[in-house]
Structure to design on (376 residues):
């Protein structure tokens, strides 16, 4: 930040005060609490955690309140805070097969081990505004029981059903995606800048931090002929997974916490090549919290970005990893766009002077005839 005019600091301080006043809103209405945001705007909190790369519900809710509901600004705040945290190591890969699921569906199989678990979702609602929600304290039909209600499902009652894609895997109809003996640990794009070409692990990290709307548009484009993907939802699951860490002094993993994630596995037909038999291939998505749209969009784009390694023709934006990944980060995109609001007085004056000189030459007597001759 720099101040290019006299009195700029006082103006900025006044703008901060005005912002705080606007954030508070009508003083006659009780102030919105962080707990209310965390509990009742949970999907917004989940998105801020996912794209902010930090699983902390209270912090994400605080950022949303500070940003007046601007989720990209809240994501920026969370990422900035994240840089101040000390690191003591990396957790073990989470085992989503052992997820305690709240929701688990498949569009590929009707009857599957463990059954379809619809869970909390908008998918089966009528998309009609419930005006009763405008009345505080009004009971909403079909509302979930409070957490301490005996009818509410306990965490221990949640199941960990087997993966749907295992049904295809057992027949050898699904590509194998297990790490080989020579595969190293994935890179960390939060500590090293992303470079191209990026491997799949780095691509998935960038997509996980990428803007949901951007990925949704790209994923949609792949289904409309710009990326050769029209997949089936093999499985979408949402629930809690344990996070394990291996302390150096112990040498074995211990559970240090639990997080909620949404996982999506999309399956695509693949005609095969000289090296690979005909089989189903996968697109993969994983996001913090309950973020099905994000996980599905991520899986669509992930599969499109695999076109080169699968020997498919490349000709769509979603298949160009440098185009996709270099523009996916909403914080970076916001900074580049919004820097245009900062003072550019000197730059503009030089441009203005150049245009004036060019205009003078253009209007000089005799120049019109020269332009006409050049045009002929």
């Amino acid at each position: 930040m720099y101040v290019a005019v006299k009195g700029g600091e006082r103006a900025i301080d006044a703008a901060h005060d005005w912002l705080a006043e606007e954030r508070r809103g009508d003083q006659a209405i009780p102030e919105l609490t962080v707990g209310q945001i965390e509990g009742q705007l949970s999907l917004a909190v989940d998105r801020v955690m996912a794209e902010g790369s930090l699983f902390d519900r209270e912090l994400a809710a605080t950022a949303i309140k500070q940003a007046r509901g601007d989720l990209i600004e809240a994501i920026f705040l969370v990422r900035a805070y994240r840089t101040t945290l000390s690191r003591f190591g990396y957790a073990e890969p989470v085992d989503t097969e052992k997820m305690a699921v709240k929701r688990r569906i498949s569009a590929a199989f009707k009857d599957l081990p463990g059954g379809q678990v619809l869970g909390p979702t908008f998918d089966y609602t009528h998309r009609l505004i419930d005006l009763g929600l405008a009345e505080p304290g009004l009971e909403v039909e079909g509302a979930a029981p409070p957490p301490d209600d005996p009818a509410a499902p306990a965490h221990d009652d949640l199941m960990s059903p087997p993966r749907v894609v295992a049904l295809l895997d057992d027949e050898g109809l699904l590509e194998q995606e297990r790490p080989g003996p020579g595969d190293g640990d994935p890179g960390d794009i939060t500590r090293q800048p992303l470079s191209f070409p990026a491997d799949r692990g780095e691509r998935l990290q960038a997509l996980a931090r990428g803007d949901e709307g951007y990925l949704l548009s790209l994923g949609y484009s792949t289904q409309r002929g710009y990326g050769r993907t029209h997949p089936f939802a093999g499985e979408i699951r949402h629930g809690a997974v344990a996070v394990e860490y291996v302390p150096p002094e112990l040498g074995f993993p211990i559970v240090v916490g639990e997080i909620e994630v949404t996982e999506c596995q999309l399956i695509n037909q693949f005609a095969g090549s000289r090296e690979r038999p005909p089989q189903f291939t996968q697109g993969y998505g994983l996001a913090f919290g309950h973020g099905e749209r994000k996980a599905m969009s991520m899986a669509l784009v992930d599969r499109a970005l695999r076109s080169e390694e699968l020997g498919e023709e490349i000709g769509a934006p979603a298949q160009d990893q440098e185009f996709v990944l270099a523009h996916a980060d909403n914080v970076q995109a916001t900074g580049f766009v919004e820097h245009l609001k900062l003072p550019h007085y000197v730059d503009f004056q030089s441009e203005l002077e150049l245009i004036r000189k060019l205009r003078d030459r253009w209007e000089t007597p005799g120049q019109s005839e020269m332009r006409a001759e050049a045009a002929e």
